[in-house]
Structure formats: structure tokens, C-alpha cells
Amino acid sequence: MTTPPRVGSLPYLNSEPFFACFEGAELIPMMPSALGAVMLRGELDAGLLSLADALALGDAVDLLPFGIATAGATGSVHVWSHHPLDTLHGATIGVTGETSTSVRILRLLLERRHGVKDVRWPRSTTERTATSTTASAVRTPRDRPFRAALPHVAVFPGRRDTVRVPIETSLPKPPVAERVPKVEVVHGDIREDDYHWLRKRDDPEVTAYLRAENAYTDAVMEPTVKLQETLYREILARIKEDDSTVPFRRDGYLYYTRTEKGKQYPIHCRKAGTPEAPEAVTLDLNQLAEGHEFLALGAYAVSDDGRRLAYSLDFTGARDYTLYVKDLVTGEVLADRIDKVSTLAWSADGDTLFYVLEDHAKRPYRLYRHRLGDPTDDLLYEETDELFRLGIWRSRSRRFLFSMSRSFTSAEVRYLPADEPSGTWTMIAPREKDHEYDVDHAGDVFYIRTNGDGLRNFRLVIAPVSDPGRRSWRELIPHREHVMLEDVDVFAHHHVVHEREDGLIRLRVTETATGGFHHVAFPEPTYDVAPEPNAEFVTPVYRFRYQSLITPPSVFDYDTARRTLTLLKRTEVLGGYDPAHYRSERLYATADDGTRVPISLVARADTPRDGTSPMLLVGYGAYGIAYPASFSSNRLSLLDRGVTVAIAHIRGGGELGKRWHDAGRLHHKPRTFTDFIAATEELIARGHTSAERLVIEGGSAGGLLIGAVLNLRPDLYHAAELRVPFVDVINTMLDESLPLTVGEFEEWGNPKEPAFYETMKRYCPYTNLGPRAYPTILIRTSLNDSQVMYWEPAKYVAKLRTVKTDDRALLFKIDMDSGHGGPSGRYDALHEAAFDYAWILTQVGRGRPAGDEPSPALTPAART
Fold first, then answer.
1. Which of 97, 98, 118 is nearest to 107 (CA)?
2. Is 374 a known active-site residue?
3. How many whole angstroms separate alpha carbon 653 and alpha carbon 673?
4. Nearest CA to 116 among 99, 96, 93?
5. Angle CA(267)–CA(273)–CA(279) in degrees, nearest 5?
6. Residue 828 known to be catalytic
7. CA-based angle 87:88:92, to the nearest 5?
8. Is the Cβ–Cβ distance between 211 and 219 less than 8 Å?
């Protein structure tokens, strides 16, 4: 035989079944047949085996036909089915013909391609001559609230005898959640929620359902385990496991964190005076994590005398932080312990702590004063407006404590001299509608970043400490319509402003004495800049972190007087990473109202732009948060396999200032979704990818984005990943007992008002699920998430399974031990990344190293 044709040449048209005949190596397409099979004819030699293997394991695995028939020198075996082979889980198929040599091919196809664990051939004559079949149900942990239904597969008699072949596999049918309608009427609109019962976290049936979803996802992903292991090893091999941060100086100590190979968490350390001094461990999170599945460090504050450390820990993932105090000289953890603490700050005496407590909905609302060793704390202030959250911090100058009540649109700040812990707090300016401001201190003035009077992008003013009210404000930097004044760092002799223009940050450095200023600009088309710890108040040096899509995180010291940059550390990417092998770009899409939407993009330099390249497109678009164009060594596992990664900087985010945020919130929220669609269409039009090769991803409010887009234009995307997605918008925003709900009325609106209800009804992903074909979908959540409750994606998945018209895989993975941010340990997080990348790469046909074959459920057929 001559070399067999590549599987990509098969006439597999839009997932329709077909019949083809192979005479030797010649491909003879035939008319479509209801049975849907491929017949291989010829001698059972190496060429035919190669062709059979190509059909099962070739590059275009989504073109695999519905049935396989093979032929050998001593006879033939035909496998018939009315269904794709990936639906034959636990069912029966019919096999006709002699089963000698051809069994080897059948086993190859079923075991290597379809994840079948065992093929058992009946021995009795009666069993071999049976001509009827039924599908045996997969057993489930309980009868309700889900069921598993399996297809019935016909058996066709052949020229000789018919063999009934039960196929046993670990891959079950997806769980089906029980429908328990809950009906309510909102503004005259009858709403029926069939899956409200999934909110009952402590119900054993809910737990069983979530575990069944995990089992189904693991079973579908089982054929990618080797790929996951490969990706994990790749990702880990790029990381310097024994590493440390750049030390920063505070009160005569050098503070830093370091990691040790094999340990999940960082170790917090300090040295007295010089880098050569002995190391003192202030907090070893690995020791604190022993016996816990999760650990997160919240506050970390050292008293002015360097003797005591106040810190807070969460062991659940639900942001339930407990305050502890440690004596750094003796190593003793003091008896002072307070639950539900959000923020804290020391007074100057080192004996008094101020902290903010959370209410039942996790809203920080009460400010307390705590004297070490005193069991009775003083309540200083209670924020009664549920739109506002309370916080406390200390100025870099150490002279003042600040307490702020803040909503999404307004702020109110009080201050107290840090050396007067029993003193009286003084208000700077009372809260006003649509006026946000924050405060820092230097010399005899407060520096105030403010956006009052409709000046949305903020300006910088100063006010005397003796009289800081609005009548005393004097402008230093005016408001500019196209420049967002994003942050201000104040020092004894200068201040540094983070300005964002056209989506990109630059640093504006101003000398206090003269008022003269200059800018620090950056060369790449898309990048990210953020401050590093700058604990010293009297210093000419400003420390910041720079990175881009191709430049690893780099810590610089900028001498504001000499105007010189010193690179202190660039994160090592082991394995010979060369940024010259990659390209980053900034381009624009045009939204339907003519607005230009920025897109950041990174790819290998040799990645084609002819529509053949796969792409991962991500977005967020909420809360005025700019999606950072940051570096990821993990991401190289996608880029090096030819996957382009793009970020759509859509409205609702903060890339182009406060008005960019305003244009994608409240009644304007749908613009966020249409911007993302416009970015998609632009990337396809430019040849960066195609709809058949495009995967999209978003988390939290970005999960809302993806869910809404999938309802609007599912045809544009091949696959989608939603992480901890906010998809049940109306039901969540109607429930004021949940964390974040009331405070976020200013972001999403209050659905108890008819106008906002109608706006949300247009885009809420859960509400708008309907009878349409959706892409392949992976959804992740965490049981202890207190920001987006686990039941939102659980309900979404349960409903989507019942309404979607396609047979593409819908996977739901629940972390039963963590919260909104996923696993807390660094190695656990890498395993999660490897899982996600294996899923993405399988979707776009770039994830199959030798011996690792994707499950048919993971490789949907070409889209119509």
C-alpha cells in the first residue's frame, strides 16, 4: 500500500454522518448514510493499521467518524452505531464478522481513542447470537437530584454471527440536577428558578451533586492526565523554586520573603541593618498551614519599635481573617486574638492597635481600638450605610492614621495623630454623591486625590493639616479628560503620580520644593507598572515593578534626583527563555457605537496571521479595574504551542479612566459585552485566529462577561472557560443578605427598581440561557467562595445541561477547600493551571504529546 491519506482530508461535513470506502490507500467519498461509518478494506498489513491509527489518533481528531469498520485477510469486523462513539459509555455496541485479528484494531480504537478501560467478549453461543440490546445505566451515588441516561444502540446482524459487546468505561454521563421550581414575581414578571435548592450548602444531596460533577469532569479529562503532567513539569521547570524578593528597608530592618523548593507558601523574614546580618523568620506560612487545606495571609504590620507583628490569617478561603499578634523578640504569639478583622494599623506607641470588624455580610463596618492585653476594646465608629465599607491605614510619614468610609462612588475620610491613640478623630470632608477622594500626608499638608465636581479622572490638591476642609484645597495637578490620575505616593521631598493615558501607565515625578516635574515613560506597546513596597518616607528613591507580556517582572529603583534607573531583580525564567522569540502588540477594535476598544496581544514571533492560529481571548470589564498586560511564565506553555493570547480592554474596566468605567456599568453594562464581541470580530478579521480556533476566558465579573457573550454570539467561539463566574446576576442582586450585594448596587444597579431589573434581564447569563448550540465549556468554582457563591455556577451548569441543543462537553469543577482565588499553595495553583491549559490545548488541537490522546468528549466536531 502507498502512504495513507491524512485524516484531515476526510470528507467529514459539518458533523454529519457519512460513508467512505478505502480501496488500498485510495479515498472514495460516498453519499451520506444514516449509519455513519468508515470502512477500511484491504490486507491487514502495516499500511492499513497505520490508516486505522490515523483515523483514531490523527491531528484532526474532531473528524473521527461515528463508527469504524476494519477488514483483515481472514475476515472483517464491523462496528455500527447510531451515535458518536463518545456517547457509548456503559452501553452496548454490535460487532459483526470474525473477531480474530481485527480485535486488535478495535481495542486500539476503543481503548486509546475513547478511554475505554475494558472490552469483554461474551463466550456463550446464546450471547453471541443475541440481536437485541439495551443500555445499562451507570450507577450514581443516589437517585436524586440527578440521573444518568444512556443511549440505546442498535445491533445489526452480519453475514456470519453477531457479537454483543458491553463496553465498560470510567466515563459516566453528566449528572442531571433535579428540578425543584421556586416561583417568585418581580415587578409583575413571573420568575421560575428550578435550581434554587442548590443553595443548601449543608444538604447532603447538594454535596453529592457537586462531587458527581467533579467525578464527571475528572473522567472526561482523564485522557489528558499525561498532558497535564507534562504541562505541570514544564511550568514548574521555568520557576526558580528557591527564590526571594528584593528586601525593602523599614526602621533599620530589611524585610523580604523567600520560597523553598517543595514548600507551598512563602517565608517572611527580616535582617537587622545589613544584608549580611543573620536572618530572623517573622512568619513561616508553611508551618502555620500544617493541618489545613487552605491558608491566606491578610494583614502584616510591624509596630514602630520593630518588636511586634500584627497579622491575620484565613484558613477557609471565605475571607474569614483572624487577627494575631506575635512578639518578634521572643517568638511568642500573644493571647490577643480577634475574629473577622479586615484591616488594621498600629499607633505610634506600639501598644495600641486599630482594627475594622466585618458584619454578617462580610462588610467592614466597625472601627475599634485595642490595647494589647486588654480584653475590652473601644468601639470608635460604626458605618451604618450598607453602601459603604470601612477601612484604616497609616500614612507613610507615620504621623497620621486615616479611616475611610467608601462606596463605589463616594468617600469620607477621618484622621488621627498616630501618637495620640486616645485622641479625637477629625473629618477631612463629608461624603458627597459622586465624589471619591483619598488622602496621604507630608510636612504640614495633606495630599488629596479627588474627583468631585464632575471631574471624573481625578486631580491632585493639597490642604493644610490645620484646616483640611474643601475650602482650603489648593490644586497641584489639574483634571485632564484623557488622563486618569490613578495613584499618588507621597514622600518627604517628592511625590510620584501614576497617570494612565490611552490605557498605559506613566510615572509623573514632582519635586516638592520647586514644583518641577518630569515623566518616566516605558518603551513597549503594552505593559504594566505597579509600586513595590516603599516604606521609607525620607528617600530620593522610588521603587516599582515593571513587566509586559514578554518582559518578566522587573524591580527597579528610580533615583528621582539623578533620574536614573537601577534594575534590582528580574524574575528568572529558567530553561532559556528569550523574549526575542515573541511579539506583543496593541491594536484596536471599533465598537458598534464607534468607540475604539484597545486589545493587547502576545504570540510567538513565528505564529501565522492567516486565520489558522488558535487563540485564548480574555477580558474583565468591571469595577473600573484595568486588566494588566502582565507577564506569565506559565503562559509560555500556550505560546510555544502556537496559541496566541489576547486581552480585550473593554468598557466597564479602568483602562481609559473613570468614564471608561462609567460607560460599562449600571444601565450601560451591555456595552461591556458588545465591546468584547467587537474585539473578537476584529481579531478574526485581522487573521489572528478564527471562530473554530478561539477559546475565551474570564473570572468573577469576567465570568459574567463570558456568560453574557455566549448567550449573544455562541457561534463566534469554539470553547469557553468561566472561573468563579458571577452568572446569576438578578437573583444575587435581589438578595441583600449576601456579601457584596448592597455595596454593589452602584456597579450593577438595584433590581428592586424596575428600570435596573429590565437592564439586568437583558444580559443576566443564567436568566438568558436558552435552546441554542453553545461551545464546549469548562466552569470552575470554589465551595468556600464568599464573593461569588458556589451555587451561581452550579445552577448555571444544571440549567444549561437541560436547554442547550448541542452535544458538546460541559464540565464543572469545584474546589471543595478554597475560595475566590482558588488554591492557596503555589504548587496546587500550578496543578490547576496545568489542568486548565490541558483543556484549552485539547480544544484547539495542540495538546497531544505521544501517548496522550484526548477524550472524544473534549474534541467537539467542526461547527456549522
1. 118
2. no
3. 12
4. 93
5. 30
6. no
7. 155
8. no
Of all residues in the chain, what percent carry a pLDDT higher than 90?
A: 78
Q: Would you state the cell numbers that stand for residue 61, as one nine-digit string? A: 481528531
Q: β-strand 182-186 against 243-244: which pairing, if any?
A: unpaired
Cell numbers representing residue 381 in the block: 465608629
Q: Residue 390 in contact with residue 743, Cβ under 8 Å?
A: no
Q: Which residue has the higher pLDDT, 852 or 233?
A: 233
- Over residues 314-368, the pLDDT tens digits come to 999 999 999 999 999 999 999 999 999 999 999 999 999 999 999 999 999 999 9
Confidence at 113, pLDDT banded by 50, 70, 90: very low
- Helix residue ranges, H only, 686-744: 701-712, 729-734
The span from the CA of 428 to the CA of 501, in Å, is: 29
Mean pLDDT of the chain: 83
188 Cβ contact list (under 8 Å, min separation 6): none
Q: Establish whether 785 is a catalytic residue.
A: yes
Task: Give pLDDT, residue 439.
Answer: 98
Distance (Å, rounded) from C-alpha 80 to C-alpha 99?
Answer: 15
Query: Is residue 396 within 8 Å of residue 537, measured between CB atoms?
Result: yes
What average pLDDT score do residues 785-800 get? 98
Sign of CA dihedral 687, 607, 702, 795: positive
Bridge partners (DSSP) listed for residue 480: 483
Question: Which tens digit of pLDDT belongs to each residue from 543-563?
Answer: 999 999 999 999 999 999 999
Flag the least confident range among 93-97, 248-252, 490-494: 93-97
> Distance between CA 389 and CA 361 in Å, rounded?
11
Asked if 774 and 808 count as a contact pair (C-beta separation under 8 A), the reply is: yes
pLDDT of residue 173: 87
Q: Which residue has the cell 495633606?
A: 446
Residue located via cell numbers 475604539: 596
Q: Select from 862, 856, 863 the least CA-distant residue to 809.
A: 856
Task: Give the whole-number percent of the chain exceeding pLDDT 70.
Answer: 78
From the candidates 557, 675, 785, 836, which is the catalytic residue? 785
Locate 262 and state its grid cell. 517543595
268, 435, 495, 820: which is the annotated catalytic residue?
Answer: 820
Mean pLDDT of all residues in 399-409: 98
Q: What is the pLDDT of residue 722?
A: 98
Cα 326 versus chain centre, distance: 34
* Alpha carbon of residue 606 to chain centroid: 28
81, 407, 700, 782: the catalytic one is 700
The number of angstroms, rounded, from the C-alpha of 35 to the middle of its chain's C-alpha atoms is 42
- The three cell numbers of residue 863 are 461547527
* pLDDT at position 131: 27
Digit-coded pLDDT (tens) for 616-626 = 999 999 999 99
Across 265-315, the runs of DSSP E, i.e. the strands, are: 267-272, 279-284, 296-302, 308-314
Q: How far apart are CA 753 and CA 499, in angstroms?
A: 37
Amino acid letter, residue 547: Q
Name the band, by pLDDT with cuts 50, 70 and 90, for residue 847. Answer: confident
User: What SS3 class is residue 322?
Assistant: strand
* Among 264, 296, 314, CA closest to 832: 264
Under DSSP, is residue 544 helix (H, G, I), strand (E, B) or coil? strand
CA distance 846 to 659: 40
Q: Tens of pLDDT along 181-208?
A: 999 999 999 999 999 999 999 999 999 9
The residues near 132 (Cβ < 8 Å, ≥ 6 apart) are 155
- Residue-level pLDDT at 848: 60
Between vectors from CA 598 to CA 592 and to CA 600, what angle results, nearest 5°? 135
Enter the C-alpha cell of residue 566.
537601577
Q: Which residues of 494-532 are buried (b: 16+ CB within 10 A; e: fewer)?
A: bbbbbbbeebbbebbbbebeeeeeeebebebbbbbbeeb
Note if the bond before 598 is cis, omega within 30 degrees: no
Q: Is 398 left (phi over 0), alpha (psi -120 to 50) or beta?
A: left
